[in-house]
Amino acid sequence: MSSESHGRKRKLPLVKLALAAIAGLAAAAFVLRGLDVPAAADAGMASIRAAGPWVFFSAMAILPAVGMPLLVFTVTAGEAFGPQLGVGGVIAIALGVVAVNLVLGYTVARHVLRPVLKRLLAYYGYTVPRVTPENALQVALLVRLTPGPPYALQTAILGVAEMPFRLYMIVSWIALLPWVIGAIILGQGLFKGNFGAVLIGLGVLVAATVAVQWIRRKYASRGR
């Protein structure tokens, strides 16, 4: 590809999206300032519980594959269904649902929308890595552990690159495991005002961050 065409590539407008999100939060804060926010949060959580775990976890299995942040579900899952399923049960179900979501995202990216996603990734300046038997593990780790690209975008890149399915699943699920566990514990601690649970959740997330950076540096150096 020529340098001229490369120069026309557009980066995914993450800054604009972040500014839009901040503006949305500011508008929400303005609208909600006259409301009883804790009561509104309790009402929202009651609505989630009333819908039931089947609806909640079905949405969690589908929506992150199309761009909704997984954190929306993991932070609320423990508080919503911990009393009914236990925290361990919520974590176990969430990890199973994440596996379903990974299968769905991979299937769509590799077999359903691959030509469309390949053009879209190129348009925004993302290079689809060339996967070989020799570099497959390195590519999977670097894509999944690179900070910045959203979860759904990472899945799209790996699917379009035709990453071997078994390796994709193993690396992706293990990479997400500490984030799911940490976010569930942290979310329940925040909702309950349980400082100990908050510390445990944060500890898991911090440990995951440190491990991710170490693994990424190790495998990035091998590609030089």
β-strand percent reads: under 5%
Radius of gyration, in Å, reads: 19 Å
- Count of domain modules: 1
Shape: globular
Give the helix tally.
11
Structural class: mainly alpha
* Mean pLDDT, all residues: 83
Helix content: over 70%
The beta-strand count equals: 0
Order of helices and strands: HHHHHHHHHHH
Task: Report on the biggest sheet.
Answer: none
Detailed description of the structure:
- The protein is an all-alpha fold.
- It has one domain (3-222).
- The chain has helices at 3-7, 14-32, 37-51, 53-62, 71-85, 87-112, 114-123, 136-145, 151-160, 165-192, 195-222.
- Helix 5 (71-85) packs antiparallel against helix 6 (87-112) and helix 6 packs antiparallel against helix 10 (165-192).
- The protein is globular, with a radius of gyration of 19 Å.
- The relative contact order is 0.11.
Keywords for this entry:
224 residues, 79% helix, mainly alpha
Task: Give the SSE layout.
Layout: H1 3-7, H2 14-32, H3 37-51, H4 53-62, H5 71-85, H6 87-112, H7 114-123, H8 136-145, H9 151-160, H10 165-192, H11 195-222
Helix pairs in contact: 3-5, 4-6, 5-6, 5-10, 6-9, 6-10, 7-9, 8-10, 8-11, 10-11
